[in-house]
Amino acid sequence: MGIIVIACYRPKSGQHEALARLMEQHVATLRLLGLVTDRAPITMRAADGTFVEVFEWASRQAIETAHGHPVVLKMWDEYAKVCDYVPVAQVPEAAELFPEFTPVAVNA
Fold first, then answer.
1. Cα→Cα distances 57→3, 13, 14, 27, 33, Å
2. Nearest to 54 by CA among 71, 74, 39, 72
3. Is residue 26 part of a domain?
4. CATH of the domain at 39
5. Rounded CA separation 56/24 (Å)
6. Is residue 30 a part of any domain in this protein?
7. What's residue 14's pLDDT?
C-alpha cells in the first residue's frame, strides 16, 4: 500500500523559476526509479509562492531507499539550493477550512 505525502517547498529569494524547473521532473524521476506509484501528483502554489506537492510513495521501503539513492540525493541537493522545506502548517492557506491554491502543471 502506498503512502501519500504533502511536501511544501518555499522558494528562496529570486529562486521561484529555478524551483519550478526542478519540480517539473521531481515525481517523474521518482517514478522512473520505482519509488512512487502511478497516481498522478497534484502540484499547486500558495499565495506566498510556496509550492505544495501531493504524491504517493510506493511504500515505506521506497521512502527509505530514496533517502540513500544517489540520483534522489543529488536532486534534493538541488532543491535545497533554491528552496526551504516547510511543514504544511506553515503554508498560510492551511489555516483555512477549505484552502485554495493555484494549480501548477508538471511532468508526471
1. 5, 29, 30, 10, 11
2. 39
3. yes
4. 3.30.70.100
5. 16
6. yes
7. 96
Q: Which domain, by its residues, includes 24?
A: 10-103
C-alpha grid cell, residue 96: 483555512
Residue 60 maps to a domain: yes
**What gap in Å lies between CA 65 and CA 38, rounded to an integer?**
18
Q: Note if the pTM is more than 0.70.
A: yes
Number of folded domains that form the chain: 1
The C-alpha cell that represents 5 in the structure block: 505525502
DSSP element (H, E) containing 95? none
pLDDT in tens, 66-95: 999 999 999 999 999 999 999 999 999 999
- Evaluate if residue 34 carries a pLDDT over 70: yes
CA-derived radius of gyration, the chain: 13
Give the integer Cα–Cα distance in Å for 37 and 31.
Answer: 7
Q: Grid cell 522545506 — which residue? A: 85
